[in-house]
Amino acid sequence: MPLILDNAVPVDLNDVDDLFGDAVGLSLQERSQSKLAVFDALGRVALVSFPISLNSPYLTRKWDADALDDVNAVAASYWLPLAHPNPQKPFVATYGPATRNGYQYHYEKSVVHAVAPSHPHLAKSALVCVTLNGSLKLFWSQNNNKLEETVIELESVLSADELVTHAAIGSDKKNLLVAVATSSRQLRLIKIEIEWAGPGSQTDKTSLPQNARLSPSLIETHLAATSWLQAVPGDAGNDASLAELSSLHLLPSVLESTGKSTAAPMIVTVRSRAHHAGSYQMAQTIIDRWEVLGEQQRNLHPAFEQLGSRRNDGPEEQGLYTRLRKLEPVILNRVVLLLQVTQHGRVLVLVMSDGTVEYRDRLSFEEIYQNEGTDRIMNLRQVGWAFSDEGLCQQVAFSPTQCSMIQLGEDGKFRWIKLHFPLGDIGNSHQDGFAQDWVNEIIRILKIQVDYSEELHHESLMRNTPLHSCLSIMNSLGFRGELQPRSFQGKLAMIEVNARNVVILITLASNTPSTGRENLSPLDDHGCGKWSVDLLSWLLDSLFGLMSDDEFTARLVSARFGEITPYLQEQNNVALHLLLSSCSRSFLLAMCRRISHLEALSTRAIEFYQRQSASGNQPRAPNSQLQQAYQRMQAITTSSPVKVHEFEKLLNALGSDIRATYSQCLPAMTKSGGNAPQGKQMDVVVKGRQIQYEMAMLNAASPPNFFLPVMKKLFGTYLPAFRNSVDPTSLFFADYEILGIQDDRTSLAAREAKGVYVDLFRRAVLKKGGQQQWRRCTRCASVMEDVSGTRPGFTFVLSQQRKCSCGGFWALLPKEKFVL
């Protein structure tokens, strides 16, 4: 089966062939995109992980020891979903459709239950396979990360007629459902229960400790059976050419759109017939469906109960039994190549051999999204987006977002097909207006916290993953090339995501486990500290430049306030927005506190070594490398033209002024309107307005008009006082190369001439021609060396940074090459 990833990177096919040989099947772990199962025609299984780079696989399980037997070939595979991070509330919120209300859209919110069998250890999955000989295999990871295997026999295969030809696996609440089709045209449904703690254990997986040793037991229960080819007079299924299965699918139960009832699981078979030249038979596909129904077991006649009691059997337990109810078949005059679920199982995607795509309702199988309109939108097809017609194909694979697909054409070549808008030109995604509208909608839909003006601690800000995703979008859309200036919004977001990353790295380094500190401190790499103080210096230099700019200061009046942000965007100067937005200001405050902590720690350590050296009482030889690490860190903070604690005071004073301005102006503005709210309702309205202003500033829009006194005080009082305590000349002529944010023509030309890159992890300058390979982010194009840790503390910090600061995946660059 072909697969396609959203972050596609080139992989040398010769390397794949050397690694796997004749691989015939692939199964990708959907959530994290970090594990891949590879099968060959003999059913041998190899597991591959991508711990760091998307194009640098690591073989975690070899298939050399697997038996060589045709009947071990894999008929179906399934990755268990990752355990929900909150077992008490195992729900996933979905938003849609979008209903138009004037110039805005209202997004209907619904909840999907995320209850499914999963590996009891967080962030771990397990692979389930069904083979032709009726065996079910579970490949799982032990608490020591060793891969183990558990096998049971589902079907007793004694002849070729009993071989499994097709299979499908799905989850239903806390169990797995397996549908198998045999050579004798039998269709069977089996329930699989996984007892992770061992046979007979009833311990819920949520109560198992994360370090518990596992001994999973698989319990099978045969639920129902039927024939997948049931002859009906006049049915097209009597055609011999349609008497073979093309594919088998198992659709799990799903909550109906009303939210009041749950649709039963469904087994779906696809039988297709292609049109051949010279044949009178047209192309056709028959989709058969069986609902999996649980019904109350019927009571037995008392006479039969008496017979049972004579055999000393207890009374028969009254419970549920399962039956398969066949629904009306769906007949299409085309060949279906792919049937895939989307929208958490509520919608089916069908791709035909002629390249056309259909969307069908999971419950009724009726085609949907056929009419275009902007009043109610759930799919891009409803607003005119479509896949281009590239002709016939043999196989197809969708991307996870279903905005593009890979087709294997009749000529044996792969084609990448993406959605396009044939109705006209809609511009491009690099327009600032588009990026702002998109991020605003995401924040509004998900109710992301963007107001941190009242927050004194920054832990919630660092853990605000949806906000980080929004900043990543802004950063990505603002990138226009390595030697081109970023957009105003993109530059602002780039500084924020990197400041966040530096704070996380310093925090990790400061909290390294004790085992990592035995030989060397993790703080020996001082690049993050250097980057932080350089950012503060550049920020002050930019603010001093605005303070001396007559064109800017002339706009600090009420009549010309609306010209401030356009002027800053023209200059691409984001310094003022970094201070006014509570999110970016909080990132800077957190960074100042981490640097102050490192400065104090280095000072105390150096004083300790000096006292030891002066007294001559040294119980053991001093660690010279450790001393040098602290000395380098102290040298960075003491030699900086900007004192970090003084800059922190400036940020705190500005934040206090902004909070006071909000508390004074917003209630007055709310009361000035008609029908002013009262009591607690007033507080809600005021807080809502404050969030709107913070969202606008986060998105690089203009600050509110009532911020004018705050800005005047900043440029008229705070900055002049700060300027008296620093040397503006040293700020102006300082080298800010490792920041990578100077985008004037001179700086870009100098960067191109030097061929200099900045390592995102070590915050050090990289030059072309080194021995070490580089990694490049597949989203924002940042680079770092492909290093492996050799020091305990450094290794710990490096292991926590498996993604770029923007959240994108890394790709390993070939030697002496700098593009993928």
From TrEMBL:
- Domain Mediator complex subunit Med16 N-terminal: residue ranges: 88-387
GO biological process terms, alphabetically, are: positive regulation of DNA-templated transcription
Q: Which UniProt keywords apply?
A: Activator, Nucleus, Transcription, Transcription regulation
Predominantly, its location class is nucleus
Q: Where in the cell is it found?
A: Nucleus
GO CC, alphabetical: mediator complex
Query: Do you know which Pfam families this protein is assigned to?
Result: Med16_C (PF20719), Med16_N (PF11635)
- Residue span(s) of domain Mediator complex subunit 16 C-terminal: 719-811
Q: What binding partners and quaternary form does the record give?
A: Component of the Mediator complex.
* Summary of the function given for this chain in its UniProt record: Component of the Mediator complex, a coactivator involved in the regulated transcription of nearly all RNA polymerase II-dependent genes. Mediator functions as a bridge to convey information from gene-specific regulatory proteins to the basal RNA polymerase II transcription machinery. Mediator is recruited to promoters by direct interactions with regulatory proteins and serves as a scaffold for the assembly of a functional preinitiation complex with RNA polymerase II and the general transcription factors.
Kindly give the PANTHER family that the UniProt entry links to this protein: MEDIATOR OF RNA POLYMERASE II TRANSCRIPTION SUBUNIT 16, THYROID HORMONE RECEPTOR-ASSOCIATED PROTEIN-RELATED
Q: Name the family the entry cites.
A: Belongs to the Mediator complex subunit 16 family.
User: Mind telling me what this protein is named?
Assistant: Mediator of RNA polymerase II transcription subunit 16
Q: Which gene encodes it?
A: MED16
